[in-house]
User: Fold this.
Amino acid sequence: MKLIAEIAPSEYFTLSTGFWLKTSFWEFDESGQSYTQPYVSPSFTFEPRYYFNLEDRQEKGKSTRYYSSWYISLPFNIEFPDFRYSLGGAIGFQYTMGRRWYWNISIGPGFTYADSQFYWSGAGDFGLGIILNRM
Assistant:
C-alpha cells in the first residue's frame, strides 16, 4: 500500500511525495540462486512532475481534473533499512475516473545506489488511487 500526497504549486507543475511498505518473499544470493527471506521495508518517494498537455486535452473536450494528463518527472526513492537510493527520469500518464478515483502509470530509465555501488535500474510506477481532498 502506498500513500501519496500531490501538491500543485503552479498550473502545470506538481510535487508528489509518498510512503509505502515494500515486501518480498524471496531474495537472490551472490550466485543468483533464490532463497526465501520474507521482509518488509519502509520506503519514501519524492517526485516533481511537469504536466505538458493539459491545454490540448481541454481543447479536445477531455477531462483534466486532478491533472488527468501526460507528464514528465524525476522520481527519487529511499528504501530502509538498507538505505537504497534511486533516481530516474520518467514519462507518465495520470487519469481521473469518476469523482474520486484515478490511475497512474509511468516508465523510464534510472539508477540505484546500494551497497556502495551504482546500478542501472528502471524508474516508474503503476497504481490505482483515491482522491481524498477536493481542489
Residues 2-130 form one domain.
